[in-house]
Design a protein that fits this description.
The chain contains 19 helices and 2 strands. The protein is globular.
């Protein structure tokens, strides 16, 4: 990314950070955001948005039942991949309490949308995503940049072994093909997490996950022949994974990585490691507001429709502080992420 050097050079040293009052810069921004009324709940917005997604899901199921054992079902699989992507974004907003201010309705909604409708553990994802928000792009603490298959920094590449070492050599080219497996990976990781001691409601979550897949596979193999059912699963799950990856990858990939020992206050930690994506109403709808990633990380419970106004306030405030604030277009953000993946995998190619 063209800006990465400037952003990395802007990371404060220990000595600079030592003299700064932690959180003071963010407190002023938080006051401005609150004064603008951007943290209040937007029940009408979420009623309309979630209602539209529910209607789309019902329409997809109705079309599936009506078409029967036909190859035309692959078009339904494409449509439902988009619907599942929107359900994932709905689960995300529920998890951050953007919809309800209280924990219980947020959890009930999250369990129903994530576990029952998507086949993904709400509790597992919440734990993972909370750790990501606390330390975005931190090599040791952010689970989203752990070197499970891909490597996200040259330090990780130097230590990579096994599958990450093999894949890392060509990870930029393999990134989108690997995303076709992301939907299945989320479900596999969800079942695996049921045995984790950190899971609060393993029985409830497991029951909902089993119910999801009983309905999903039962419906597919009842209505479709085995070959058509497998083709439906491949198209639906593959495109669902690509959709989710296309929404989440532009947000941090290719932005500065934080190493152990770097000390950043909350505002700089969130702003410098995040990238906003421009694009207007269509990009807003496609990404569910996550294109305002900087503002979302600074104010995770802020309702989606408030993020646009928060962006103006945050960008101006960062300019006052001299904190680099980065945003670009959707295609450019993917190019930067892929360029970063290719760059950090270079040591593995050279070693080969």
């Amino acid at each position: 990314m063209a800006n990465s050097t400037v952003l990395i050079e802007s990371l404060p040293t220990r000595e600079q950070e030592k003299g700064r009052e932690r959180g003071s810069d963010f407190s002023e921004l938080s006051r401005r955001i609150a004064d603008a009324g951007l943290l209040r709940r937007r029940p009408l917005y979420y009623t309309v948005r979630f209602g539209a997604v529910a209607l789309a899901l019902a329409g997809g199921v109705a079309a599936f039942v009506t078409l029967g054992n036909s190859w035309s079902q692959l078009f339904v699989a494409v449509a439902l991949a988009v619907v599942f992507g929107q359900l994932g974004l709905a689960a995300h907003d529920l998890a951050h309490r953007q919809v309800f201010s209280r924990r219980r309705p947020s959890e009930i909604g999250g369990l129903l949308v994530a576990n029952l409708l998507l086949g993904m553990s709400y509790g597992w994802w919440m734990n993972k995503h909370t750790r990501h928000h606390a330390n975005p792009n931190h090599e040791e603490k952010d689970p989203d940049v752990s070197p499970d298959i891909l490597v996200w920094s040259r330090r990780q590449a130097a230590r990579a072994e096994g599958l990450p070492r093999f894949v890392g050599k060509h990870q930029a080219a393999l990134f989108f093909p690997l995303l076709t497996l992301e939907g299945l990976n989320l479900s596999f990781s969800s079942f695996k997490a049921l045995r984790s001691p950190s899971m609060k409601r393993p029985v409830l979550e497991g029951t909902l996950l089993v119910a999801h897949f009983a309905l999903y596979f039962g419906g597919l193999f009842t209505v479709l022949s085995p070959g058509k059912a497998l083709a439906f699963i491949a198209v639906h799950q593959g495109l669902f994974g690509v959709y989710l990856g296309s929404v989440f990858a532009p947000n941090h990939k290719g932005m500065p990585m934080i190493e152990e020992g770097m000390r950043l206050d909350f505002l700089r930690r969130q702003v410098l490691t995040s990238r906003n994506v421009r694009g207007g109403v269509l990009v807003d709808a496609f990404m569910g507001g996550l294109n305002y990633q900087i503002e979302h990380h600074l104010f995770p419970s802020m309702p989606t429709p408030a993020l646009g106004r928060a962006q103006d306030i945050t960008e101006r405030y960062c300019a006052e502080l001299g904190v680099p604030y980065y945003q670009t277009g959707l295609l450019a953000s993917h190019r930067e992420a892929l360029r970063h993946l290719r760059s950090v995998g270079e040591p593995l190619r050279d070693a080969h």
